């Protein structure tokens, strides 16, 4: 699999889709793929539909971190399970997905950051995660050669990484071998609803009858759901990533400070990103959802840069249709793969900051750069729930930049919600009703 995955990438699963299924999963990112995988392994006749390519959007554009460290406490037990599931899934494919246990390290510039890390540690202990605090001297010994001195760090040795544009298609291969029917280049235009409940879906290729549908459409989920009267305050932010040409090894794990996040790649280079920096294209949904995001804005007023308008065809672009007929071309067909341009100024800054942090590695050359649209929620945790008003509809979206690592855990949970099995985790925090039952938006003590 080459990167980036685009409209020009070959179609691996062309279809056609069947006319009946037990479950239809909408969205071929890591959440949809893992949901289909566990449904198929559980004996369900599942059809996974992707409007573009498997992992064509954020699921192949993320940092590749499989991170327990710093998670919201309600996500942490799920992520700890996902950490174990990644190892199992890696053994079920003959593709090298680059799964490596190198650890994750948060470098603290100020003593106040160490206090935040210390406050989070009891959550790690409760979930059985091996996170620990490092002193300034221990941090320097862990990652030698850095030009900056740090107050200390939060370090989780058991955290992992993988190459996302390889890993997610490989997981799709496992799902297909388990019996899942995967169809790329096939957009779902609408739910088929009869007598108030799900009866199937209407795709650009025709109808599929199915009593259960899972919406795992990433940045497109809110647009699709709104057509059916299900409102979620989902927004999407642009995040830029750069990949260097091969460099000497400076650290075998992933790390981040207040300027730069980095991790080694299987090709010998490093993936670089700006931790905590995102860009929001302001559109109709941004105005509509603003009241729900006030708590997040107060907590981090400078973490997101506002841009005036989304490019044409983006989910929250001013010209994107909000209503369309089931027999009409939908916005999902007009934009098969959401492929935002990277922030070139940020790429230059990343190159400069990485070279400055490790002055002995020599010139840093960027081999490629890209961006992805991260779907996010006001409280920075997802919606993982059944929709009470539309029986048969399940939502798994708004992973808020955390989806790649937690994908197998959330996929297993969504499969259990569909089949009526026990999820194995407390999902109260991820309920859909929190946005309209008067609950205050509570941003958890994630770090």
Discrete helix count: 11
Number of domains: 1
Task: Please compute the radius of gyration using only Cα atoms.
Answer: 21 Å
Summing up helix and strand content along with how strands pair, one would put the structural category as alpha/beta
CATH superfamily: FAD/NAD(P)-binding domain
Tell me how many strands there are. Answer: 22
Instruction: Report on the biggest sheet.
Output: 10 strands, mixed
Topology:
Layout: E1 23-26, H1 30-41, E2 46-49, H2 58-61, E3 65-66, H3 76-90, E4 100-101, E5 104-108, H4 111-126, E6 132-135, H5 136-142, E7 152-156, E8 160-161, H6 164-177, E9 181-183, E10 188-194, E11 197-203, E12 206-209, E13 212-215, H7 221-226, E14 235-244, E15 254-256, E16 261-264, E17 270-273, E18 278-281, H8 284-299, E19 304-307, H9 331-334, H10 344-357, E20 366-376, E21 383-386, E22 393-397, H11 403-419
Parallel strand pairs: 1-2, 1-13, 2-9, 5-15, 13-22, 18-19
Antiparallel strand pairs: 3-8, 4-8, 5-7, 6-7, 10-11, 11-12, 14-17, 14-18, 14-20, 15-16, 16-17, 21-22
Describe the structure.
With 447 residues, this protein is an alpha/beta fold. The protein has a single domain, classed as FAD/NAD(P)-binding domain. It is 28% helix and 23% strand. The protein has 11 helices and 22 strands. Strands 5, 6, 7, 14, 15, 16, 17, 18, 19 and 20 form a 10-stranded mixed sheet that branches. Strands 9-2-1-13-22-21 form a 6-stranded mixed sheet, with helices on one face. Strands 3-8-4 form a 3-stranded antiparallel sheet. Helix 1 packs parallel to helix 6 (164-177), helix 1 packs across helix 11 and helix 3 packs across helix 11 (403-419). The mean pLDDT is 95.
């Amino acid at each position: 699999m080459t990167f980036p995955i685009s409209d020009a990438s070959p179609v691996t699963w062309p279809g056609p889709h069947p006319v009946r299924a037990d479950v239809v999963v909408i969205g071929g990112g890591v959440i949809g793929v893992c949901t289909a995988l566990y449904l198929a392994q559980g004996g369900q006749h599942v059809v996974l539909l992707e409007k573009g390519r498997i992992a064509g959007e954020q699921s192949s554009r993320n940092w590749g971190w499989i991170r327990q460290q710093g998670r919201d406490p309600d996500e942490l037990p799920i992520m700890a399970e996902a950490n174990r599931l990644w190892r199992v899934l890696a053994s079920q494919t003959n593709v090298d997905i680059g799964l490596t246990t190198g650890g994750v390290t948060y470098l603290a510039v100020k003593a106040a950051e160490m206090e935040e890390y210390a406050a989070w540690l009891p959550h790690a202990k409760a979930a059985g995660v091996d996170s620990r605090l490092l002193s300034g001297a221990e941090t320097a010994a862990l990652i030698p050669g850095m030009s900056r001195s740090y107050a200390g760090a939060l370090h989780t040795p058991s955290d992992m990484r993988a190459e996302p544009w390889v890993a997610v298609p490989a997981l799709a291969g496992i799902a297909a071998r388990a019996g899942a029917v995967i169809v790329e280049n096939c957009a779902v235009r609408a739910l088929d609803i009869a007598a108030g409940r799900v009866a199937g879906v209407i795709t650009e290729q025709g109808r599929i009858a199915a009593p259960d549908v899972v919406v795992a459409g990433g940045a497109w989920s809110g647009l699709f759901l709104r057509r059916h009267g299900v409102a979620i305050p989902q927004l999407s932010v642009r995040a830029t990533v750069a990949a260097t040409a091969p460099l000497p090894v400076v650290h075998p794990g992933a790390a981040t400070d207040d300027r730069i996040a980095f991790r080694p790649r299987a090709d010998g280079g490093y993936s670089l990103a700006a931790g905590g920096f995102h860009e929001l294209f302001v559109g109709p949904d941004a105005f509509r959802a603003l009241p729900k995001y006030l708590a997040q804005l107060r907590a981090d007023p400078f973490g997101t840069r506002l841009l005036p308008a989304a490019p044409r065809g983006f989910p929250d672009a001013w010209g994107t249709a909000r209503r369309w007929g089931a027999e009409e071309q939908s916005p999902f067909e007009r934009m098969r793969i959401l492929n935002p341009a990277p922030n070139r100024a940020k790429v230059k800054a990343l190159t400069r900051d990485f070279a400055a942090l490790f002055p002995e590695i020599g010139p840093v050359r960027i081999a490629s750069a890209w961006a992805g649209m991260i779907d996010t929620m006001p409280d920075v945790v997802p919606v993982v729930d059944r929709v009470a008003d539309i029986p048969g509809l399940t939502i798994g979206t708004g992973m808020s930049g955390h989806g790649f690592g937690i994908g197998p855990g959330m996929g297993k949970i969504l499969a259990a919600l569909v089949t009526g099995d026990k999820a194995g985790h407390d999902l109260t925090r991820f309920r859909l009703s929190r946005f309209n039952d008067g609950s205050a938006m509570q941003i958890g003590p994630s770090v």
